[in-house]
Fold this protein.
Amino acid sequence: MTGERTSAGDPDRTLRLLWRDPTAVPRRGPRQGLTIDAVVDAATALADADGLDAVTMRKVAAELGVVAMTLYTYVPGKAELLDLMLDAAYARMVRTDTGGRPWRERVGEVAAENRRLFEAHPWAALVSTGRPLLGPGQMAKYEHELSALDGLGLDDVEIDASLAHLLGFVRAWARDAADAGAAVRESAMTDEQWWAVNAPLLERVLDPEAYPLASRVGSAAGAAHGTAYDPGHAYGFGLERLLDGLAALVER
């Protein structure tokens, strides 16, 4: 799923919904039988099971046992609903108190928290968040994550940029890991099985003399991980290199 982004709906209505302003939901008409939280939970369950494409007002309404027009009393449309879903996911993240621990451990835990978020809600990694939500979940997340980098001698702009770099790494990893998992499901073969099946063809087209580095390095990586891409190794290796880069900035 591509093209989804936060803050794509009516900003005034969205902010009022995010902060549960009572004026966000009209009180006219029949007594309300649902809540915004119930709508968000139903939409999130659909996205977790089948991706963002499965989240339509009609399908969410069906999950709640109401007609689609009923949902528009609570949420103007899918753009605003997406913001509510993501902010709710942020609000429910387990935040570890890492006060007093070395800064690399603190930053590493922030990465782990976001990794767990994307593993629980794979769709969240596909949403562009260039325009932040500014909801209670987003603000609590941002405040918590900034604290991992506070007190290191970085200025405020460097702190914000360092956090954005970290979160961008985890989001990119989550997308690649999800793609790797989808390839296994769609082919009904593990990577090892796929390589074994296709090895004869690859041996015919890959000339070690023409591509000596690719042949050598690719073979070494494949032997080490049993696959061309190992999500666990990619995460651990990438995070350590990112932390090394931050260490150079901190030590400067």
User: Anything to note?
Assistant: The radius of gyration is 22 Å. The chain has a mean pLDDT of 91. Residues 156-187 form the longest helix (32 residues). The chain has eleven helices and no strands.
